[in-house]
Amino acid sequence: MADDRVAAVERALTILEAFAEGAGELSLAELAARTGFYKSTILRLIASLERFGYILRTPAGRYRLGPSLARLGVLYRDERNLEPILRPALRRLRDDSGETASLYVGSGLTRTCLYRENSVRELRHHLEEGARLPLALGAAGKVLRAYADEADETLRRVRRDGYALSLGERDPNIAAVAVPLLDGTGRLLGALCLSGLAAQFTLGHQRRCRDLLLEAAAVLQNTV
Q1: Residue 46 half-sphere exposure, CB side, CA atoms within 13 Å?
Q2: How far apart are CA 163 and CA 159, in angstroms?
Q3: CA Rg, the chain, in Å?
Q4: Which residues make beta-bridge pairs with 64?
Q5: Taking the alpha carbons of 117, 125, 111, 19 in that order, is the dihedral positive or negative?
Q6: Does residue 212 have a pLDDT over 90?
Q7: Residue 31, exposed/middle/buried by CB under 10 A (0-12, 13-18, 19+)?
Q8: How far apart are CA 215 and CA 28, in angstroms?
Q9: Cα–Cα–Cα angle for 7, 13, 14, rounded to 5 degrees
Q10: How far apart are CA 73 and CA 173, in angstroms?
Q11: What CA–CA distance (Å, rounded) separates 67 from 56?
């Protein structure tokens, strides 16, 4: 019975994860295609998810994420109490670099954009808070993996250099630089990242973004 309960929880979480690619609403058929579950299984699980406010059914019969997820997200942020400190820092990074500034945290095989300030440029890398991306790709993912002590020469170099660079790894049009955000005890809190269009990330711009991030991380380490 214990295995059955765990399996049911994992199936319910898989349904929620089906929205992680940025889809605002999904039909039952789309949920079945993304999860590989039978429609009857999805309907049973959705009944419980709806009851607790994690999924809502629209008048058109489609499904979207519910307000309970936002409530848990607020509780998570409040517990860390980083937002009042990080928001101004991210805005400064955005303004000084012209790029989108973000903080990522790792979770399993993905990384989540916990906070972000999008570039004001018309052509930019636009992110939404809560977006989940692969941990294995991108500068922020490298930093998070490097400070999780993964045994890989590339990641050891990231830890030695104190930053990571990605040019078109996840998306051929996107480039990014990331550094670790540590607290006063040296514990990793996340990856600070500047990202934008790859065509704009010349060698000089890469170095400027790196230096801005390193400076911001050093200041924040004394306050978070």
Answers
A1: 26
A2: 7
A3: 19
A4: 56
A5: positive
A6: yes
A7: buried
A8: 48
A9: 85
A10: 30
A11: 9
CB 107 within 8 A of CB 13: no
The alpha helices in 52-187, defined as continuous H runs, are: 67-80, 83-97, 139-146, 153-161
Distance CA 108, CA 110 (A): 6
209: tokens are 């973004």
Exposure class string for 42-75: b at 16+ Cβ within 10 A, else e: beebbeebeeeebbbeeeeebbebbeeeeeeeee
Tokens of 172: 């051929």
| pLDDT of the residue at 31 | 92
- Amino acid in the structure at residue 143: V
DSSP-assigned states of every residue in 11-62: HHHHHHHTTTTS-S-B-HHHHHHHH---HHHHHHHHHHHHHTTSEEE-TTS-
pLDDT digit string (tens) for 160-185?
A: 999 999 998 888 899 999 999 998 88
Class of residue 192 by CB neighbours under 10 A (exposed 0-12, middle 13-18, buried 19+): buried
Closest of 187, 211, 209 to residue 105, by C-alpha: 187
Q: What six digits make up the tokens of 210?
A: 């790196």
